[in-house]
Amino acid sequence: MQCVVDIWPPPCGPMAHGASSAREPCHHVSLRLGIHTSIAGSLERSALKAAELGANTFQIFSSSPRQWKASVPSAPSVALFEKARKRHDLVPLVIHDNYLINLASVHEKTRDLSIQAFRGELERAIAIGADYLVAHPGNYKGQTVEQGILHFLEGVATAAQGLAHGKLMLLIENTAGAGAQLGSRFEELHVMREYGMKMTDLPIGFCLDTCHLLASGHDVSTTSGLKQTVNEAERLLGLENVPVIHANDSKTPLGSHVDRHENIGQGYIGVDGFRRILTHPGLRNKAFILETPVDQPGDDRKNLDTLKRAARGAL
Ligand SMILES: [Zn+2]
Ligand SMILES: [Zn+2]
Fold first, then answer.
1. I need a surface site. Which of 213, 225, 291, 298 has the fewest CB within 10 A?
2. What spacing in Å lies between the alpha carbon of 307 and ligand 2's midpoint?
3. What is the pLDDT of residue 71?
4. Where do you find CATH 3.20.20.150 in the chain?
């Protein structure tokens, strides 16, 4: 007898597995579906908001994403945050890095500022108890791709020097490939991890964004395109190195190289696309996190509900 996920959250967590062990093993894992929430007000509020929306994982910025200045949150605010996460089973915790950071920049001054800011990202992620820090590899304008990648990795290694990173893992996010953006090709991401692991002991994995995949030419909207994309990810990245997927539909078509997130099911990936992505056997154990626009009040909850239905195959 196979175990079918027909309610959410799934009934058989690790504790329930014993009951079915005499028969066929239960193949599904606990689904992790979540959303990016704001830390405006307090860190704790971001966790409570995620729980209130029905998420069991979430992503935050650890400071304002468009400012260089940031400070490490106080111990009491981290304690309240951890308590809320525990109470609501919010795992994993993902932090997205600041938009201003460009470790790959050709300009030394920008790189220096970026390294300082990225060091701050790592310090806050560790202090807050994050599992993953998602970072964009940056923009290589004025250089070759190889020089850009080298600058990015040197920046990561310098920023991480001497830090006790604990369980924190850096996830390099794939991009739409607009202009001189690094990281839209799996080959580039592959090289970043291969060389990066020799330059720093900070663990390195990947975050794949479904909107960026489509925009960069990976057709995750079709059955055959998804199969090809997952196979390519397996071959070049290793699926075990991709713990987090950003679940965003795309306002722009396949290969547009434009990064515009759309509500789940309303863009070029569509409802069928998301049902196939969420039920793909190779992706079941990933944490799916929404970064969809909130144009109308309630859009966040609606998108999360849509993800849950997609994961049940009921979309
Ligand atoms: Zn993303
Ligand atoms: Zn994006």
1. 298
2. 18
3. 84
4. 31-311
